[in-house]
């Protein structure tokens, strides 16, 4: 049966999901609730929100980690009867447990890398839950293909790596059916989480771009759920992200998390810029933490690059001599200087750029011919498509050309390894490499440099690695467009598109004095060893705890439909106004003061035609016609326009320019309520405003009788806001001796007399 929240989401996405009808009804896992008291809905009119008014008595917390794939390996039994499962020690999801509290239970929700027959799915689910605390999400084949190979790999992955679909042959046009499958897949993941969650006790940590709309499904069901999201890929600049047809749906879904994590400040800055430009949200930095205010909730922004699992690398390093004979590699490359590349076969890894830089190195510095070797390990591709096939062919052609041009008997300048390489074999190559080169044109993080640094350090004296004695040194040439680059200050950073500069950087790295290499290596090792995966997960979880600590002290309401759903969080003392109560009090009262704002209340804020409609005039006349009512329109607008618009409303009072001018009815004269009639300050303020208006496209000056207002609503959001702050300081400086107040508001800077009457003072 389809949930109500899912049905609403479909309304926005497409109105209908034909693929969902093919999904087989699954037997649900038993769900145990540990929440005492009554399970209630926080808002009867909106989403079904399971919650409790009192904290749970269960002391032990639990975290549910949700990702596209579970951290387990699966293989068919030899007799073809059933499945055999084991932990995937290379999985980040498994490694991050080291940073969580020891007493915390960890549950995993995700899909498997293998196809499980529908008849076996219930048994596999129970087995994984009992033995591994894993809850598998089984996606129907048609949804899986469109979700992963379609929307994730054809739309999100290229876009987040700055590749736009300029033509149908490169990237492909936006396909709404793929988006529908993405939403459907996220809904399946949410149902698996809902089956096992204890909403008052559990934390939920969602990982990566495959599940970016999952927070909306979960938040709609559990308003006060403690939930974090971490994006492991880059987040593109707003100019790129805004090309996505479902940009706001994804952005609003992410904002249903409590904490959103990124590897670098650049990625976080791009996300915040999108929130500002598309949703009008501004972030604040307080005591080192960045927060976004969103309907009363403060959403934390976490910037923390992930690290490596030190113990795993060191344990493999101790076995490297046994499992993969380092001595053989040293013998193979005896007398040679080894540069190493380890990359996935991906259009964004810049492997061919690296090969071209190696070719340029051999041309520019002939001394390295016969001496320098680039070993390029290329892991199998995880995606597919025409672009990938083209880059594979280009790489093969470059390797052949370089080896034919510069090769000698017993010497090939390029050693290309195009097959899966185990961690132990990779460690052996790290051990003999003088320099690691990473030339990705865009990469979320890339942990290859971190692994290399630890391998070059070797293990402690008690270990058996051949690198455990002697001076430790390493060199890195890394692209400035990868996530780990900012943390490696001793690396030589390059623009991988500049082949000549990259070649020179490679030459500098392998020609550098050993003492300098040692100093750079020591600096890098201190950082990598202290900022490992446990440090990363511990830091993220602590921030999630801090961000969510007020959840059960606030009143929450879920409002909105589809991807417009959000939770409004208010003070515990807040009480929702009852319309019946308002009507009752209104009818009993003998005297009523009704103050109506104009823009945004009487007239829509976004309307260009500000003249009130006949319906508005009729309503105001009805209200002001009651002898018990005193009705005022209170506005910052001028008396001339307000008087003209409301001329049919004979008994309506008007407070213009925020109360500087006031009129009780059309038969009365305008009164000046301000205590000053001296406006010489305008001659000082106006030239300043004109200066900023000329420099800020989309801004304008509004001339009032009592004030000057500079508007920047139609200017570029970032530039307009920056100019407004600068103008505020400028005006406060030049008007410091004048009897005026300089105020900033929503897209405005206003200069007005200090003692001007404000709202509500008319009736005191």
From TrEMBL:
GO terms for molecular function: alpha,alpha-trehalose-phosphate synthase (UDP-forming) activity. The keyword Transferase applies. In the C-terminal section; belongs to the trehalose phosphatase family. GO terms for biological process: trehalose biosynthetic process. It is an enzyme of class 2 (transferase). It comes from Theobroma cacao (Cacao). Its EC number is 2.4.1.15. Keywords: Glycosyltransferase, Phosphoprotein, Transferase. This is alpha,alpha-trehalose-phosphate synthase (UDP-forming). InterPro entries: Glyco_trans_20, HAD-like_sf, HAD_sf, Trehalose_PPase. It comes from the Eukaryota. Pfam families: Glyco_transf_20, Trehalose_PPase. CDD domains: GT20_TPS. It catalyses: D-glucose 6-phosphate + UDP-alpha-D-glucose = alpha,alpha-trehalose 6-phosphate + UDP + H(+). Gene3D superfamilies: Glycogen Phosphorylase B, HAD superfamily/HAD-like. The keyword Chaperone does not apply.
């Amino acid at each position: 049966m389809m949930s109500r929240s899912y049905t609403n989401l479909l309304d926005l996405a497409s109105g209908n999901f034909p693929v969902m009808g093919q999904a087989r009804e699954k037997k649900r896992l038993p769900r145990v609730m540990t929440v005492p008291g009554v399970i209630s809905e926080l808002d009867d009119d909106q989403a079904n929100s399971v919650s409790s008014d009192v904290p749970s008595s269960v002391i032990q917390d639990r975290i549910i980690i949700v990702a596209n794939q579970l951290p387990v390996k699966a293989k068919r039994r030899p007799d073809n009867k059933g499945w055999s499962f084991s932990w995937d020690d290379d999985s980040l999801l498994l490694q991050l447990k080291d940073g969580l509290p020891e007493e915390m239970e960890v549950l995993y929700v995700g899909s498997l890398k293998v196809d499980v027959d529908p008849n076996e799915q219930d048994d596999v689910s129970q087995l994984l839950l009992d033995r591994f605390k894993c809850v598998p999400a089984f996606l129907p084949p048609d949804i899986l293909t469109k979700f992963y190979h379609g929307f994730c790999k054809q739309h999100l992955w290229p876009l987040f790596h700055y590749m736009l679909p300029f033509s149908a042959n490169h990237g492909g046009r936006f396909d709404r059916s793929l988006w529908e499958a993405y939403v459907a897949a996220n809904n399946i993941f949410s149902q698996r989480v809902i089956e096992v969650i204890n909403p008052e006790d559990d934390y939920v940590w969602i990982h990566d771009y495959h599940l970016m709309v999952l927070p909306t499904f979960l938040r709609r069901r559990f308003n006060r759920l403690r939930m974090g999201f971490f994006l492991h890929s880059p987040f593109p600049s707003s100019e790129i992200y805004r090309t996505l047809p479902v940009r706001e749906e994804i952005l609003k879904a992410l904002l249903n998390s409590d904490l959103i994590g990124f590897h670098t400040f650049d990625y976080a800055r791009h996300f915040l810029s999108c929130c500002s430009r598309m949703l009008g949200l501004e972030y604040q930095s307080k005591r080192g933490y960045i927060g976004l205010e969103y309907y009363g909730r403060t959403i934390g922004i976490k910037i923390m690059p992930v690290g490596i699992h030190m113990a795993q690398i060191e344990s493999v390093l101790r076995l490297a001599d046994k499992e993969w004979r380092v001595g053989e590699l040293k013998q193979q490359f005896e007398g040679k200087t080894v540069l190493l590349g380890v990359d996935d076969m991906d259009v964004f890894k810049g492997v061919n750029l690296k090969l071209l830089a190696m070719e340029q190195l051999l041309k520019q510095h002939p001394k390295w011919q016969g001496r320098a070797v680039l070993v390029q390990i290329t892991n199998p591709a995880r995606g597919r498509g025409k672009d990938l096939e083209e880059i594979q062919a280009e790489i093969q052609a470059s390797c052949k050309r370089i080896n034919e041009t510069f090769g000698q008997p017993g010497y090939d300048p390029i050693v290309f390894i195009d097959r899966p390489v185990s961690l132990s074999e990779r460690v052996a190559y790290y051990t003999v490499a003088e320099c690691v080169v990473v030339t990705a044109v865009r990469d979320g993080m890339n942990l290859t440099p971190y692994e290399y640094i630890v391998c070059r350090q070797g293990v402690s004296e008690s270990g058996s690695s051949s690198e455990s004695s002697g001076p430790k040194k390493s060199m890195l040439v890394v692209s400035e467009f990868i996530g780990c680059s900012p943390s490696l200050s001793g690396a030589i950073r390059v623009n991988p598109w500049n082949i000549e500069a990259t070649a020179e950087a490679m030459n500098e790295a392998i020609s550098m004095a050993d003492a300098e290499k040692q100093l750079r290596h020591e600096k890098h090792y201190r950082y990598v060893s202290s900022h490992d995966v446990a440090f990363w997960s511990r830091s993220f979880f602590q921030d999630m705890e801090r961000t969510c600590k007020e959840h059960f002290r606030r009143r929450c309401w879920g409002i909105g439909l589809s991807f417009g759903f959000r939770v409004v969080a208010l003070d515990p003392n807040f009480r929702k106004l009852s319309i019946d109560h308002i009507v009752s009090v209104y009818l009993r009262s003998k005297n009523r003061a009704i103050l109506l704002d104009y823009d945004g209340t009487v007239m829509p804020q976004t309307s260009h035609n500000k003249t009130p409609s006949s319906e508005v005039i009729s309503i105001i006349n009805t209200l002001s016609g009651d002898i018990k009512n005193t009705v005022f329109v209170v506005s910052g607008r001028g008396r001339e326009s307000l008087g003209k618009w409301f001329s049919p409303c004979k008994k309506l009072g008007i407070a213009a320019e925020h109360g500087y001018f006031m009129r009780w009815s059309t038969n009365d004269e305008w009164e000046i309520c301000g205590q000053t009639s001296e406006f010489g300050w305008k001659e000082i303020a106006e030239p300043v405003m004109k200066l900023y208006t000329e420099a800020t496209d989309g801004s304008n000056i509004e001339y009032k009788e009592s004030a000057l207002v500079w508007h920047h609503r139609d200017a570029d959001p970032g530039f307009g806001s920056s100019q407004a702050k600068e103008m505020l300081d400028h005006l406060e400086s030049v008007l410091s001796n004048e009897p005026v107040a300089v105020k900033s508001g929503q897209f405005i800077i206003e200069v007005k007399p200090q003692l001007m009457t404000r709202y509500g003072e008319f009736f005191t």
